[in-house]
Amino acid sequence: MAKLTFLGGIHPYDGKDLSKDKPISDVTPGGVLVYPLSQHIGAPAEAIVAKGDRVLVGQKIADAGGFVSVPIHASVSGTVKGIEPRRVATGDMVTSIVVENDGLYEETEFCPPGKGLDELGREEIINAIREAGIVGMGGAGFPTHVKLSPKEPDKIEYVIANCAECEPYLTSDYRRMLEDTEKLVGGLKVILKLFPNARGILAVEDNKPDCIARLRQATQEDGRISVKALKTKYPQGGERQLIYAVTDRRINSKMLPADVGCVVNNVDTIVAIYRAVTEGRPLMERIVTVTGDAVVNPANFRVRIGTGYDEILAAAGGFKGEPEKIICGGPMMGFAMFGLNVPSTKTATALLALSKDQVSAMEPGPCINCGRCVEVCPGRIIPSRLADYAAHFDEDGFVENYGMECCECGCCSFVCPARRPLTQQIKSMRKLQLAKRKK
In which element (H, E) is residue 438 found? Predict the structure, then answer.
């Protein structure tokens, strides 16, 4: 089978051997769970409980604050201790609902639809996804019901399940594909019910042959779903790169996937959709990879949202020694953490701890005009030039030279022999421009 890919990209050490063979296990949360009201792109959720209230597993504790927003549900039973600012993984202080876990895990009554998928209408499915509080769980956190509500659903031709998991070290999606194959395929069928003219594609990098085989077996009798093996290369799982690799269609920063007839969802998101629509269960948990050479027992965990990162690390045996770098997410697109006493959220993907910080150990030097950053850039822009514009606060030059087309994948910084922080400089300028556009 032809290997599908995109132009540019890199092949970093993937580190997946540390945790890929570790089946998903459960983390038992401690005495207090914290639910930030901003866990997604868009308006923060609005608390509908008060201090002293008792809540149950699956109970809605915050409602959507607008159309581009989602509700939040308790993942444990217990008592609301307060609604107050709490620190989150990014370092920000965010208004949060604090729940004291009573350890009973008493559940609210879940309401499955009571009829088969064929009998469900479009609005019923969208409403179930919205009420379940589902967002993009690959890291972006965009409300899923909004993504699945394009203006012209009949023009959607491809529903792509992003099974690439190209980020180094992460293996949570890999374990989901192996252990919850039927739920993943079932979730894709739910989405396809929304788009009658679309075909489903499970797009998997070819370094996961066991997943490819299992998914093909699970879909062999479904004429609307196919499995495509993609060439293993970072950032193959980027939305733009994935769409191009699978459909040969291009999108830019001013377009949405729906503009080229595509809808893309992450593995964990699709499983959550299946559970919401068929079982009536809201999003209360996700799979998190804890890994890195500084971790005692790298593994994949089923984590109740609101559980502290320190508790998740403890389930992996803690650190071997003091790590030089702790990252929320993967090494390419994650961000450094200042501490672990912060809650996990719907967009938590991984906790990576490295014994050596190879990046900060090297001082950046001047650009030598080698062109390596241009060669690997999947956006086909000139990172070194854009970084110069950003460093000199030349906003016009940055925008005119396609700075907004950067997907912040980190390929340019990875290959730069001068160790220039290209991605960081470009990212800062993009944030400034996006903020101005929002105003």
Answer: helix 422-438
Looking at residue 317, its amino acid is G
The full DSSP string for 1-24 is: -PPB--SS-B-----GGGTTTS--
CA distances from 281 to 48, 286, 289, 294, 303 (A): 19, 13, 23, 36, 15
**39 near 346, Cβ under 8 Å?**
yes
Q: Is the CB of residue 203 less than 8 Å from the CB of residue 209?
A: no
Helix 181-194 with 267-279: angle, nearest 10 deg: 80
Q: What is the dihedral of CA 38, 43, 45, 51, to 10 degrees?
A: 80
Q: Does residue 235 have a cis bond before it (omega within 30 degrees)?
A: yes
Helices 383-391 and 422-438 pack at an angle, to 10 degrees, of 60
User: Where are any strands of DSSP class E within 58-217?
Assistant: 60-63, 72-73, 78-87, 93-101, 158-163, 199-205
What's the average model confidence in pLDDT over 102-121? 91
Extract the runs of DSSP E, i.e. beta strands, from 206-284.
Answer: 225-230, 262-266
Enumerate the β-bridge partners of residue 288: 301
Structure confidence at residue 111 (pLDDT):
86
Which string of DSSP letters, residue by residue, matches 361-387? TS---------HHHHH-TT-S-HHHHH
Which pLDDT tens digit goes with each residue over 208-244?
999 999 999 999 999 999 999 999 999 999 999 999 9
How does residue 426 score in pLDDT terms, banded at 50, 70 and 90? very high
pLDDT, position 148? 97
